[in-house]
């Protein structure tokens, strides 16, 4: 949708968002509030092009710099994409869960959330996802899950362990999408991204254990056996958590040792 057509939808819905230039140092927040209200109300949709900066500034009676700062904020949060060229502009995008996860990760770090607490939350959430997938998964979902496991096995047999790990991680996203609940799918994407920094410090396994448990899990899932599928998933996640924790503690110890050496050198 063109920026002109989107502008016509925005016009007339700006009374509460307008602010005169120079009267508030936080004018960009008024622009953000206005655009987010349009998103929430459904006036702006995925793929829409926003009006040009000048048009938005005139409609909302703010400076172009305030509009520009608001757009940069939306771009950083992953819901806006800036395109250049003749057909360029600001477009509403699907959203990047990495950007959201980075903000959440900062909050978790500030609150000293531990790997144990993050894993416990994942067990609760993924258990619910498994139960929902048992009820909602279609033949197409089972096909996608099977294809994921087959691909992971091919990577493992070829010695492409990094690719196998990425495919194993994607398995959980495919499973979450099998719930046909976009909230579940988004939460899983965020959880996976939050745990990625722990996973990237763990050497990939060359054993076929991951393949075996996934095939066993899919047997329970196909049978619509919620308790059996949850039990297999929880066993896998508990084992995975032990590996994450073991390597994470080693990394912290190594960082502490390096820090101690640096402190002694400074003295």
Q: In summary, what is this structure?
A:
By secondary structure, the protein is an all-alpha fold.
Task: Walk me through what this model shows.
Helices cover 71% and strands 3% of the residues. It folds into two domains: 3-92, Winged helix-like DNA-binding domain superfamily/Winged helix DNA-binding domain (Arc Repressor Mutant, subunit A); 105-251, Up-down Bundle (Four Helix Bundle (Hemerythrin (Met), subunit A)), CATH 1.20.120.530. The chain has a two-stranded antiparallel ribbon. The longest helix is centred in the last third of the chain and has 41 residues, at 226-266. By secondary structure, the chain is an all-alpha fold.
The level of helicity is over 70%
Note the overall shape. globular
Give the strand tally: 2
Strand order of the largest sheet: 1-2
Which structural class do you get from the secondary structure elements? mainly alpha
Which fold name corresponds to the CATH topology of the largest domain?
Four Helix Bundle (Hemerythrin (Met), subunit A)
Q: Low-confidence segments, ≥5 residues, pLDDT <50?
A: 12-24, 263-267
- The domain tally reads 2
Described by strand count, sense and barrel closure, the largest sheet is:
2 strands, antiparallel
Q: What is the mean pLDDT?
A: 81
CATH class of the largest domain: Mainly Alpha
Order of helices and strands: HHHHEEHHHHHHH
Output the radius of gyration. 24 Å
Alpha plus pi helix count: 11
State which percent range the strand residues make up. under 5%
CATH second-level architecture of the largest domain: Up-down Bundle
- What's the end-to-end separation, in Å? 64 Å
Going by CATH, what is the homologous superfamily of the largest domain?
A: GntR ligand-binding domain-like
């Amino acid at each position: 949708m063109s920026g002109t057509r989107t502008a016509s939808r925005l016009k007339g819905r700006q009374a509460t968002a307008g602010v005169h230039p120079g009267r508030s140092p936080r004018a960009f927040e008024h622009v953000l509030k206005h655009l987010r209200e349009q998103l929430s109300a459904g006036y702006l949709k995925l793929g829409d092009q926003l009006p040009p900066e000048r048009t938005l500034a005139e409609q909302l009676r703010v400076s172009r710099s305030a509009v520009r700062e608001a757009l940069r904020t939306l771009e950083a949060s992953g819901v806006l994409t800036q395109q250049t060229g003749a057909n360029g502009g600001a477009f509403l995008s699907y959203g990047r869960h990495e950007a959201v996860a980075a903000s959440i990760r900062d909050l978790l770090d500030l609150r000293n959330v531990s790997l144990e607490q993050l894993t416990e939350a994942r067990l609760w959430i993924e258990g619910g996802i498994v139960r929902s997938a048992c009820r909602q998964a279609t033949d197409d979902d089972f096909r996608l899950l099977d294809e994921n496991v087959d691909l992971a096995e091919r990577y493992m047999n070829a010695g492409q362990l990094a690719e196998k790990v990425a495919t194993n991680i994607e398995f959980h996203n495919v499973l979450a999408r099998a719930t046909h609940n976009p909230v579940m799918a988004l939460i899983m994407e965020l959880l996976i991204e939050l745990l990625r920094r722990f996973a990237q410090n763990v050497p990939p396994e060359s054993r076929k254990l991951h393949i075996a448990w996934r095939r066993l899990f899919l047997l329970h899932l196909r049978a619509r056996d919620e308790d059996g599928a949850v039990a297999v998933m929880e066993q896998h996640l508990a084992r995975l958590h032990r590996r994450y924790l073991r390597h994470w503690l080693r990394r912290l110890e190594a960082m502490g040792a390096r820090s101690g050496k640096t402190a002694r050198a400074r003295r």
